[in-house]
């Protein structure tokens, strides 16, 4: 495998961009080809520079990305996998993990990223449902993951660790570094992202090469990605500090930088001090609101620290107006908030610059998620399926080249989420004003968004209800200063059973991803109900809303 070069001081390097940004990107069908076409002409320039714990950095050139993805793609070809095989991946964030994603596209297979917090029951479901031909996990999880995978018929299980070791790279090292990307049509699958459901099990959202490429091409233009506008006239430089197993870090951030031939400063984990230290070398930052809240707590976040920055982008969860205003006062920058989801990639964005479709207004309005992106059509309907006039609140629906193909092997669920005339129901509730700004005011889906991760109360309640001595439970989201929103569980014991909240939380920890664990648990005699006997979650939310604030 190509080895990155090491620098001891982490000093700023050239991004090597020459402005050749792949004019044929929109026409290429294999997303990988479109991204590779956008690599700068100088393949020895730095594509990714990591920030290591000891302050040093590893530098990967564009040539390294090309060669490593070829080698991994050739490894897959050597396995003679069926076309469009699922490659399921649960590994810590690393440059090699990103290469594995790109190699999967290159080989024409389907990438299935899994949050590293998922525990065995969750992984067993995803692997059983997706039936991946290949599973890649970290070496420390190999024992239990491989057992699950082989039971589900997986052909090969490789390991990949965050220190560039593991059988995937060892095997790929013997493969050729030249590879012709597999031809793919826009409608062919590129990735499956599992999203939990309000009822039942998680659903795999099937995204195509066309979905992802069209969205990336629109965002490149809409956000003004530039090959020359960065510090010292160099191109944009992105600080990549998000996980790469969800839309935000894997698609929006990674595709954005690659499609512009832009260097990335790569953090394996978000750390506010490191981000502040690296800001003077960068021009673009993307984060969920929690990242902005934590950055604001850093005294080093000053106007001087952001002097080279061009754009701060937020999304995945509501950005509080307070954070939006505080950021502007502190840094002089106005955060650009956008809105998206796994099934649709990005739907709306506040404007970066003038937007001719809306009379050139270029104001980024706090509390709104901006305009429908070019090519994306939005409408707002009431529960009866009637279009609502401007300014009225209802369910947000979408159509466009970004909208996914459906849920993996769940045609009924897919049908349920689309209207008869073919619009996808986002489950978000909001309004579009006369100027075109979209505001999200709530969700019709029972969902908690905590630090940018989705937590479905129905899933947590299901696990709690299975515990011995539990009669019933309700999980609600309440405001939290760091995560925006967190889950609180309210539990009823069976007659005669003695339940301790700490035991309930401990039992959940052994079964569920850590971010899904309710931050507080109460055992109470009864739940508030309406006359129909339905639990009144709004009352529980009101009752506990001041728990953390
Ligand atoms: C961590 N913890 C969380 C949590 N993250 N609790 C609730 N919500 C979260 N998001 C808890 C852990 O369970 C643990 O608790 C403790 O915090 C420390 O864990 P950690 O892993 O050290 O946390 P930290 O590194 O601080 O992570 C926080 C974070 C992370 C904000 C950096 O959650 C994160 O990267 N969030 C971004 C998620 C993201 O990329 N979303 C995009 C989805 S795409 P304990 O009790 O075990 O110690 C999407 C579409 C779109 O939504 O529009 O983009
Ligand atoms: P996911 O299923 O993880 O892709 O999460 C998608 C959901 O995140 C959306 O349906 C919204 O509810 C929420 N979301 C994403 N961006 C924003 C935003 N800017 N403001 C409010 N909610 C958002």
Describe the structure.
By secondary structure, the chain is α/β, with parallel strands linked by helices. The chain has a domain of 97 residues: GMP Synthetase, Chain A, domain 3 (2-Layer Sandwich). A ten-stranded mixed beta sheet has the order 1-3-2-11-10-12-13-14-15-16. About 3% of the residues have low confidence. Bound molecules: malonyl-coenzyme A (MLC) and adenosine monophosphate. The site of malonyl-coenzyme A has 22 residues, from helix 8 and strand 14. Malonyl-coenzyme A (MLC) binds next to helix 8 and strand 14.
Structure in a nutshell:
By secondary structure, this protein is α/β, with parallel strands linked by helices. It has a domain at 448-544: GMP Synthetase, Chain A, domain 3.
Keywords:
549 residues; alpha/beta; GMP Synthetase, Chain A, domain 3; 15 helices; 26 strands; 24% strand; binds adenosine monophosphate
Radius of gyration: 23 Å
Number of strands: 26
Largest sheet: 10 strands, mixed
CATH topology of the domain at 448-544: GMP Synthetase, Chain A, domain 3
What's the rounded overall pLDDT mean? 94
Distance between the termini: 50 Å
What ligands are attached or bound here? malonyl-coenzyme A, adenosine monophosphate
> What CATH architecture of the domain at 448-544 would you give?
2-Layer Sandwich
CATH level 1 name of the domain at 448-544: Alpha Beta
Give the strand order of the largest sheet, numbering strands 1, 2, ... along the chain: 1-3-2-11-10-12-13-14-15-16
């Amino acid at each position: 495998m190509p080895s990155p070069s090491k620098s001891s001081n982490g000093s700023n390097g050239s991004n090597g961009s020459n402005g050749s940004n792949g004019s044929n990107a929109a026409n290429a069908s294999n997303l990988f080809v479109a991204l590779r076409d956008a690599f700068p002409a100088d393949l020895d320039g730095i594509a990714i520079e990591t920030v290591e714990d000891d302050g040093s950095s590893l530098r990967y050139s564009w040539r390294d990305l090309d060669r490593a993805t070829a080698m991994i793609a050739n490894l897959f070809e050597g396995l003679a996998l069926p076309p469009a095989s699922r490659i399921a991946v649960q590994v810590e964030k690393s440059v090699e993990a990103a290469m594995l994603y790109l190699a999967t596209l290159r080989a024409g297979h389907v990438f299935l990223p899994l949050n590293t917090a998922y525990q065995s029951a969750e992984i067993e479901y995803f692997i059983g449902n997706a039936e991946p031909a290949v599973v890649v996990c970290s070496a420390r999880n190999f024992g239990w993951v491989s057992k699950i995978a082989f039971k589900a018929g997986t052909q090969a299980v490789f390991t990949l660790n965050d220190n560039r070791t593991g059988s995937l790279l060892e095997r790929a090292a013997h493969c050729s570094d030249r590879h012709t990307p597999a031809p793919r049509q826009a409608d062919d699958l590129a990735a499956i992202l599992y999203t939990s459901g309000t009822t039942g099990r998680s659903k795999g959202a099937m995204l195509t090469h066309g979905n992802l490429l069209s969205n990336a091409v629109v965002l490149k233009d809409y956000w003004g990605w530039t090959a020359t506008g960065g510090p010292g006239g160099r191109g944009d430089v992105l600080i990549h500090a998000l996980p790469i197993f969800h839309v935000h870090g894997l698609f929006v951030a990674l595709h954005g930088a690659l499609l512009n031939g832009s260097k990335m400063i790569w953090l394996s984990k978000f750390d506010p001090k490191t981000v502040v230290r690296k800001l003077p070398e960068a021009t673009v930052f993307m984060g969920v609101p929690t990242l902005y809240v934590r950055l604001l707590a850093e005294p080093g976040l000053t106007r001087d620290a952001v002097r080279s920055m061009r754009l701060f982008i937020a999304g995945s969860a509501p950005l509080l107006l307070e954070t939006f205003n505080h950021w502007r006062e502190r840094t002089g920058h106005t955060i650009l908030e956008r809105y998206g989801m796994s099934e649709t990639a990005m739907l709306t964005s506040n404007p970066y610059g003038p937007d001719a479709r809306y009379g050139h207004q270029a104001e980024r309005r706090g509390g709104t998620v901006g305009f429908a992106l070019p090519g994306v059509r939005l409408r707002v309907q009431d529960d009866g399926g009637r279009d609502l006039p401007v300014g009225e609140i209802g369910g947000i629906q979408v159509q466009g080249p970004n909208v996914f193909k459906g849920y993996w092997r769940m045609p009924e669920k897919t049908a349920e989420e689309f209207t008869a005339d073919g619009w996808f129901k986002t489950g978000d509730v909001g309004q579009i004003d006369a100027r075109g700004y979209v505001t999200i005011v709530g969700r019709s889906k029972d969902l908690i968004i905590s630090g940018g991760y989705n937590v479905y109360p129905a899933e947590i309640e299901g696990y709690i209800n299975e515990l011995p001595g539990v009669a019933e439970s309700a999980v609600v989201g309440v405001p939290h200063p760091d995560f925006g929103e967190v889950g609180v569980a309210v539990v009823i014991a069976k007659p005669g059973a003695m339940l301790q909240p700490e035991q309930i939380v401990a039992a959940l920890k052994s079964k569920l991803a850590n971010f899904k664990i309710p931050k507080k648990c109460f055992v109470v005699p009864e739940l508030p109900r309406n006359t129909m006997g339905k639990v009144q979650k709004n009352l529980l939310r009101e009752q506990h809303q001041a728990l953390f604030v």
